[in-house]
Amino acid sequence: MFQAWLEDHKRKFGHFIGNVWVHPEDRKTFETKDPCKGTVLASTIQGTTEDVNQAVGAAKTAYKSWSTLSGHARARHLYSIARHVQKHSRLISVIESMDNGKTIRETRDCDIPLVVRHLYYHAGWAQLMDTEMKGWKSIGVVGAIVPWNFPLMLLAWKVCPALAMGNTVVLKPATNTRLSALLFAEICAEAGLPAGVFNVITGGGAMGSSLAVHPDVDKVGFTGSTEIGQLLRQATAGTGKKLSLELGGKSPVVVFDSADLDSAVEGVVDAIWFNQGQVCSAGSRLLVQEPVFDKFMDKLKVRMRNLRLGVSLDKSLDMGAIIDPTQQKFIAEYVDNARKEGADVFQTDAPNGCFYPPTLITGVGTTSKVVVEEIFGPVLVAMPF
Predict the structure, then answer these.
(1) Residue 375 has what pLDDT?
(2) Catalytic: which of 7, 31, 96, 246?
(3) What does the record give as the active site (predicted)?
């Protein structure tokens, strides 16, 4: 099914603007790859400022009619999209898994069902707009920029409320994970969403900047690194644009000596090794009360040895691949630096390729880089207290 969809598009994808595929001439391309195998899935366009202008223009034109629809009318469109996502859920799950490297179990059982729930939930809010939110007005054109760790789920977080409240959207997916966003746009058109209400443009970081500072974009929603978020804050300061930022984190997990240690181990495993640790809210710091620290580390290491890594479409796996070799190297550098600082590093086995083993680091000080900086990988730093 997935291969057939790629072949239907001759494995070459343009932008999706105004409910049609747009293939501008003389554009550079980017090869989207399966992180697990390194094989090329499709070729996508590296857009330019001209493409941003076209997409924003389509969204601005569509806003005139979309914003005047009743909340109930917009809700019907969101319900229709939700049903079509459910209809294509198997295809979407496979695309999300192969494009990102995360396990099919996560995309099938978590990500895609949550996308559907967001569509239904915000359709419900759209129906309440005329009664519960009298006097509230839509903003206009929303520029949405999403990362690669949850490509479609984070798309839904931004797109669903924006459309429900009468805004139109131009979305730029992450460089490495473009396919599910493009399929979602195609599904929106299939479900009857009016042309220009939702548009997808593909490109690198510079294109995201062009979208954020475009004079006809009224709000920017960004999820990604703290560094890029700071740049967007600077770029939009004083422009009057509304800005939502969801950035990095270094979340702690705290285990007291009164805890059920076996249950706590499972909680830690889910907190840090879900989605290969590529989660802004990953529990990447572990604080364990001193009387049970050694015992808890022993139990955790046993559990780590049982984690299964491999090609993402295997339904029995716990972890898939890291998004790309650059991120894999980034993670490895943090761990290598911790070793140089004298830390104890425990790792299990990992397949060859773009995989990184579950890693437990102990024996570090509170000012170590692995303690205070986001690694965005399957690396847990544990300390007693």
Answers:
(1) 96
(2) 246
(3) 246
Half-sphere exposure of 241 (CA within 13 A, CB side): 26
Q: What share of the chain is helix, strand, coil (3-state, %, to 5)?
A: 45, 15, 35
Q: Which one of 190, 218, 246 terminates a domain?
A: 246
pLDDT per residue as tens digits for the range 243-252: 999 999 999 9
Of 198, 213, 246, which residue sits at a domain end? 246
Question: Quick check: 287 and 253 in contact, CB under 8 A?
Answer: yes
- Rg of the chain's alpha carbons, rounded to an integer? 22
Mean pLDDT value of segment 266-294: 96
Nearest to 52 by CA among 151, 145, 157, 132: 145
Q: What is the pTM of this model?
A: 0.94
Is position 106 annotated as part of the catalytic site?
Answer: no
CATH number of the domain residue 211 falls in: 3.40.605.10
Query: Total structural domains in the chain?
Result: 2
Report d(CA 101, CA 310) in Å as an integer: 9
Asked whether residue 47 falls in the same domain as residue 69, the answer is yes
- Looking at the predicted structure, is the pLDDT value of residue 1 above 90? no
